[in-house]
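User: My collaborator sent over this chain with a note saying "see what the structure looks like." That's all I know about it. Can you take a look?
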Amino acid sequence: MLARLLTRPYPSRHDRPLVLGHRGASADAPENTLAAFREAVRQGADGVELDVMRCGSGELVVCHDEWLDRLAGEHLEVARTPLVALRRLDVGSRHSARFTGERIPTLAEALAVLPRAAVCNVEIKCDTLLDRGLSFRVAREIRRSEAGQDLVLSSFNPLSLARARFFAPRLPAALLVDTSQNLPLREAAARALGAAAVHVEHRLCTPDSVRRWHRQGFKVAAWTVDEPGDVERCCAAGVDVLISNRPRAVLVSIDRLGIAD
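Assistant: Without extra context I'll predict from the sequence alone. Here is the result:
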């Protein structure tokens, strides 16, 4: 409880759920690229969700996949590939020819391209006990940044989130939850971490579950919400944030539901 009191408020709106672009507006631009983040802003999103890991030379890069086969057609492991080599990869043309030449950005570059009023959910990508200093470097980069966004740290890994809470205690943190995990255990872990929110696979967001998480003091973000029926269901359940590959379509659905004032 004390940890929560020392933490900045989790970002929210009073008129409707926040809408964040999942890896940017990744249905319309290559995921986790500067183009995707700009497109999310253009579509009216309140901010973005992005993924961060360390590359082979130690820098923080914005990328979801450990291996780059899907994104760049190269069998390279991000953790073993230096930034100078990552910079040469085209991660845009597989999405569309008009994005040919789009590169993997650093966290600093991603924060710099977002407006100051934007929300930025930084997901720490780490599946191991030790994270090679990832959480510390993320916290340090955010402290160095003068971009000024409303920042949230999230992770599936409770140990990474605990380290992030230690290095950046003022930033709100969120534990990620999917349908394969034990809900009571994840909720207990989130409470122990002093997490401000749970970021939950949208199929788990029933009215009863959202009420339970709210009673425990958590904000609730649903991912990944793209279809109008899922938007309606999650809004009816009372979620606070919708994370979507299609932020503009979600905003249109919210408007049709008559939720926004």
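A starting point for your reply to your collaborator: The two ends are 33 Å apart (CA to CA).
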